Amino acid sequence: xxxxxxxxxxxxxxxxxxxxxxxxxxxxxxxKSLMKQLNNITxxxxxxxxxxxxxGPGLNMLVKGKSPVQEKxxxxxxxxxxxxxxxxxxxxxxxxxxxxxxxxxxxxxGIIEIVTRQEEGWSYIKSGF
Length: 129
Hints:
Oligomer: single chain
Number of strands: 5
Helix content: 25-40%
């Protein structure tokens, strides 16, 4: 298998990956695991476009004072990884925009953002355990 013997194939410009991650858990171990996965992806395929959509309980990863990974998000943002907070989840949980970490953006409905990305050809990964 060429991918296993030559990891450089991913960075050789053969294909730019586009991945949308869905995060719906407030499990901080899952948040930390996601950060590791994102670093692994960008170390092998640095041109990969990545968007992480947080909704439901997963919104907590983007809430100031609740996110154990905010510093890691800051570093990943420098690699052009996008983090999005679902406004429906924010309204449901009474989380105003100013309580979301500044590294994150906003989408009206997280699940619609994920579906839209899939329709645009992005790969979908459900994050968590």
